[in-house]
Amino acid sequence: MAVTVCFSAAQRSCVERVVQVPLGSTIADAVRASGLLADLSDAAVDALQPGIWGRKLPADQLLRAGDRVELYRALKVDPKVARRERFIRQGAGTTGLFSKRRAGAKSGY
């Protein structure tokens, strides 16, 4: 059966490989068959989390034909923290509801 294995080693780059695996194969089998992780160190491989179609799953999950196996890197920055920092940089009065206030209008309206 054919499955797609996807891995993004860096931002804005993605490598996809379609591999043929026998029935009853797991995520780990498909990743091994793809050869995408051959250049990475063991520590880097251990840090990756596998999943299928955007859902994190264990490496021993059985595959079905047409599955898209994805390997997820750990986040470098918490999304909530990044949003707060972006909001502070932009300034509270220039974003969101208050960005298009009419001249002379009360604040918050």
Overview of the molecule:
The protein has a domain at 2-72: Ubiquitin-like (UB roll) (Roll). It has 3 helices and 5 strands. The longest helix is centred in the last third of the chain and has 12 residues, at 79-90. By secondary structure, it is α+β, with helices and mostly antiparallel strands. The chain has helices at 27-34, 42-47, 79-90; strands at 2-7, 15-20, 49-52, 55-56, 68-72.
Sum up the structure in keywords:
single chain; 109 residues; alpha+beta; Ubiquitin-like (UB roll); five-stranded mixed sheet
Per-chain topology:
Blueprint: E1 2-7, E2 15-20, H1 27-34, H2 42-47, E3 49-52, E4 55-56, E5 68-72, H3 79-90
Parallel strand pairs: 1-5
Antiparallel strand pairs: 1-2, 3-4, 3-5
What's the rounded overall pLDDT mean?
Answer: 81
pLDDT below 50 for ≥5 consecutive residues: which ranges?
none
CATH superfamily grouping of the domain at 2-72: Beta-grasp domain
Described by strand count, sense and barrel closure, the largest sheet is: 5 strands, mixed
Number of helical elements: 3
- Radius of gyration, whole Å: 21 Å
Provide the helix percentage: 10-25%
CATH top level of the domain at 2-72?
A: Alpha Beta
Biggest sheet, strands in spatial order?
2-1-5-3-4
Query: What is the string of helix and strand elements?
Result: EEHHEEEH
Shape: elongated
Q: Beta-strand level of the residues, as a percent range? A: 15-25%
